[in-house]
Amino acid sequence: MMLTEAEVRNLSICAGCGQCLVDCPVYKASADTTHLPLFKGRMLRKIYESSHGILSALAADPRSEVERLLSAWSSRIYECTLCGACSENCKYEIEPHKLWYRLREYVYTRNYAPDSLKAVVENLRVHGNPYGLSKGARRFWLRKASSKVGIPVGEAKTIYFIGCTTVAKHEDRPIAISMAKILNKAGVDWAILGVEEPCCGAPIQMIGDETLLYGHARRVVQKLREAGAETVVTACPTCYRMLSQEYKAILGGDLPFKVEHSSTYVKRLIEEGYIRVGYAGVKAGYHDPCELSRHTGIISEPRRLMEMVGYEVYDPDYSGEKTFCCGGGGMIKACNAELSSKVSTVRVHQLARGGVDIIVTACPSCKSSLSAASSGLGLKVLDIVEAVAQNLEDG
Ligand code: SF4
Ligand code: SF4
Asked: Same domain for 307 and 248?
């Protein structure tokens, strides 16, 4: 197993204090100790020691022990939302959730990843998206969406990168329609890549196929460059993290365009007078997506946008960089859907405690997970751009 010097150092200085487990959403939902961050940490240490250092020479057959470990417990490595709450709580700044990516890479390349996750990678290879949505199905949706609102396809200064989840999930499609309404109303020179829009590659990073990721990232940048993008705006925080942070590291340099999340972009459109919004007057619980608040630092902008449309913002326990995963992160849903929905249920109850009229978030994946879990409570979930589009004023 290859780890960087910093990762080896982090692994070796882990004090075993257990602070990382305190807010782990998966452990909170399952109460199963094999979901603890420490469990994954021990596995990683065992795997590393089986092939490095004095222990690998002394132990009788360290590799077969690792094989046994992986065949019994590999699914536990993916039963984690990669939310980063463990890293948030670690006083030693070990950033355990980043080590989980390396663990996944190792498990995947040794062919121990669960079949459902291998199928996701295959979908990406064949269809260009993790859901296995065909180009025909994508074209059909686009035609239907275009009958409701103008959606230009092709070249433009601003490319709206829709993201696979928004297109694939029925409940998320209104996010794309809302973005189109906002961009049209603001008179932006914009377009989408249409059926040619590739996945941002996050699923392959999360599953652990780092080899596929490099070529994939290059192709995405090439497509956006060919479309003439000066700005790429996306309402998906995972696409945003990949395009604004990960690609620079993967491809080694700055990208030829600026990348923005919809929350900062739309907020600026309002502030600069390109669009005007009315006053909604409802109490809304805001769910911070892990990818947006903890991983990319966008916390105040969605709240400000909510205030602009007249929402009274309720911050539940676990807000901002201390957020609690919606249950849909880290490909956990593809690995263990039942566990994923248990996490979503915990989160929805935290939000509902504020006596809110509605739940608002800024991520298609969070919207989808929270919508499923909140239906029994009669609470509707909206993405922030939907809230803006619903309250657009004429003129
Ligand atoms: S909080 Fe940090 S130091 Fe403590 S057990 Fe977790 S990873 Fe190790
Ligand atoms: S990344 Fe999140 S779900 Fe995974 S171990 Fe850390 S706290 Fe738990």
From this structure: no
pTM of the model: 0.95
**d(Cα 238, Cα 108) in Å, to the nearest integer?**
21
Is 348 inside a domain boundary?
Answer: yes
Reading the block at residue 10, the tokens are 């982090």
Nearest CA to ligand 1 atom 6: 20
Q: Is 84 in the pocket of ligand 2 (CB under 6 A)?
A: yes
* Location of structure tokens 């240490």: 45
Do 140 and 234 fall within a single domain? yes
Task: Tell me how far apart the terminal alpha carbons of the chain are, to the nearest angstrom.
Answer: 60
How far, in Å, from the CA of 35 to the mean position of ligand 2?
Answer: 8
Pair 48, 11: CB distance under 8 Å = yes
Q: Looking at the structure, do residues 16 and 65 belong to the same domain, yes or no?
A: yes
Give the pLDDT confidence of 185-236 residue by residue, as tens digits. Answer: 999 999 999 999 999 999 999 999 988 999 999 999 999 999 999 999 999 9
Query: Would 194 be classed as within a structural domain?
Result: yes
Mutating to test ligand 2, I would choose from 23, 40, 86, 98 the residue with most ligand atoms within 8 A of its C-beta, which is 86
Give the whole-angstrom CA distance, residue 115 versus residue 123: 12
β-pair type (231-234, 158-160): parallel
130 part of a folded domain: yes
105 within a domain of the structure (yes/no): yes
